[in-house]
């Protein structure tokens, strides 16, 4: 049986485990139950009424959070020719092609977001087994395979969050830091939830958002009222 420390137990007393909280109230409460000395990550987890085994019920996309993620995002761009200069001018931290791919194959992964121009996908494709498990694989469906490097780099640095439902129908993503004020957490959560609602597959039947929780690192989770999320 799992045991909890005193600070966790004290925090747990502040959460009514039979209640469902509005996004606004949950944003305040998740800060109130945070007890770590470091700046923890605030995450949202949503259980969707979809069957990801069917391609027409997949939920995938990206959203730029209004207040970002509270951390510096190092952006890598795979490009060549004039697009290399464009990526640098857009603020990319690393740019290149075969040279960068070789570094990654050698174990280098000091970046949080990867973008590629379409003509570089032959190079990037060879890195799939390395990048995909870490959520770093450029993908045209979420706007990270594009010729518009200026906007792609800007969005990545501004707090762009990619999401994809897993085999169990769960989507989980960061929506800020515990150092954010409650209003910032609320607005980030609402932006993320709106993106999930807009990504609802036409083939999805019945209740789309079955349950949702918000939590901070090492802290108790707070259940959201799903009626507010539609």
Name some characteristics of this structure.
alpha/beta; three-stranded parallel β-sheet; 8 helices; 230 residues; 20% strand
Write up what this structure looks like.
- 31% of the residues lie in helices and 20% in strands.
- The chain is an alpha/beta fold and 230 residues long.
- The strands form three sheets. The protein has a four-stranded antiparallel beta sheet with strand order 7-1-8-9, covered by helices on one side. Strands 4-3-5 form a three-stranded parallel beta sheet, with helices on both faces.
- Strand 8 and strand 9 form a beta hairpin.
- Helix 2 crosses helix 8 and helix 3 packs parallel to helix 7.
- It is globular and about 60 Å long.
Largest sheet: spatial strand order: 7-1-8-9
Let me know the number of strands: 9
Q: Overall pLDDT, averaged?
A: 92
Helix share, percent = 25-40%
Segments where pLDDT lies below 50 for 5+ residues? Answer: none
């Amino acid at each position: 049986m799992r045991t909890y420390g005193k600070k966790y137990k004290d925090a747990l007393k502040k959460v009514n485990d039979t209640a469902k909280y509005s996004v606004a109230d949950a944003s305040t409460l998740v800060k109130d139950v945070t007890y770590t000395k470091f700046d923890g990550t605030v995450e949202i987890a949503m259980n969707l009424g979809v069957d990801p085994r069917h391609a027409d019920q997949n939920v995938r996309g990206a959203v730029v959070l209004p207040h970002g993620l509270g951390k510096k995002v190092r952006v890598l761009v795979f490009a060549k020719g004039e697009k290399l200069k464009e990526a640098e001018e857009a603020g990319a931290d690393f740019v290149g092609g075969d040279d960068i791919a070789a570094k990654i194959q050698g174990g280098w992964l000091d970046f949080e977001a990867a973008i590629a121009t379409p003509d570089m996908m032959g190079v990037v494709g060879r890195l799939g087994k390395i990048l995909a498990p870490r959520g770093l694989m450029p993908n045209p469906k979420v706007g990270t395979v594009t010729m518009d490097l200026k906007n792609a780099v800007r969005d990545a640095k501004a707090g762009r969050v990619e999401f994809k439902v897993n085999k169990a129908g769960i989507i989980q993503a960061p929506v800020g830091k515990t150092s954010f004020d409650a209003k910032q957490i609320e607005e980030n959560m609402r932006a993320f939830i709106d993106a999930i609602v807009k990504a609802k597959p036409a083939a999805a039947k019945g209740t789309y958002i079955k349950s949702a929780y918000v939590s901070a690192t090492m802290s108790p989770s707070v259940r959201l009222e799903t009626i507010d999320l539609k």
